[in-house]
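Exercise 7.
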Amino acid sequence: MGAADHVGLMTSGAFARASGLSRKALRLYDELGLLRPAQVDPVSQYRRYDPAQLEQARLVAWLRRLGMPLARIRAVSTLPRVQAAAELAAYWDRVEAETAARRELATFLIGFLSGRDTAMRDGQGTLAVRCGVQSDIGLHRQDNEDSAYAGARLLAVADGMGGHAGGEVASAAVIEALRPLDTEVPAGELLNALDHAVRRASSALRDIVLQDPSLLGMGTTLTALLWSGSQLGLVHIGDSRAYLVRDGEVFQITHDHTLVQSLLDEGKITAGEVASHPQRSLLLRALGAGNFEPDLQLHEARLGDRYLLCSDGLHGVADAESMARVLLTITDPDQAAKDLIALAIDGGGPDNVTCIVADVVTPADVETSADLVTTADVETSADLVTPADLVTPAAPASDPA
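Solution. The predicted structure, written as tokens, is:
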């Protein structure tokens, strides 16, 4: 190949300096078909480029600086200008959406790791949660194996089992594992955060048993709600329950993981036979047991909604009509929780019973942060309720009606 063949062409080094691309990048783009040299010496393999290729090379360099994948650059670079511009606009829209999602996740992780708290907002402004929390040991138990947590964004009830203090340990440990979630979690990460926390809680239970084999066989239910703006994540395993009160109606939004519920679902028993079934307390799923896969749901919370979380010490004794009457007529969440406890005690109080009644309100409806949680034993707005903190046995409460 003679010198005349090289007239007007640029060496790869000169072309790299002019285009802002490295010689290594030029070799890669040649291999990928993004930017072929105008001429390759068959003996020396020297690459030479036409100056007219500089515009194409600079476009590739700019697109790489935007982070566009090479495969997409190859497609865009072959399009007419108008179509290439449209493709670039669509790509950048996606980048900005993904960046916003990562920013939300980073904000959550920073708050999660540092313990910093921030405001909870929906599309129209800030939401708050005003709670009443009550628990009673019942009339026939020596220990309270229920635990609960009520904070600005996280509500949780756990009903432990296992005897010899195992149930108390299990429920308290699971609540403690969820406690760090009481911060600003991006709406798109609610269910992932809850699922991760449940798996962390399960691991914590295994570690406890390894340290103290006498606790082998302990377990707990868990029903928890986590807010992010108007989005509400729900995690549920076992037979504690969550209810929603909206527009004058009460809805059960969890499904019991019990043998009798599965028999009822299959039509093998009737609803009237559930209460007297000899295995009505047998759980099919629980934390600490073999099957701990939780149910995860996403809900849209509305201003004026009311939520009830409770252990089976309430719904296993009180009928649905009586519970609905309290939830629909008693406006103060703390009094509503007390009246629900009274229903269980008046029904014989055979088990521990714990209730969290939570109203979705505006900040103006919450006078102080302490109003977010109102119990006789919990002083802060987001505190762990462990068996040692719960209400001691008391005489049957008066009829709420």
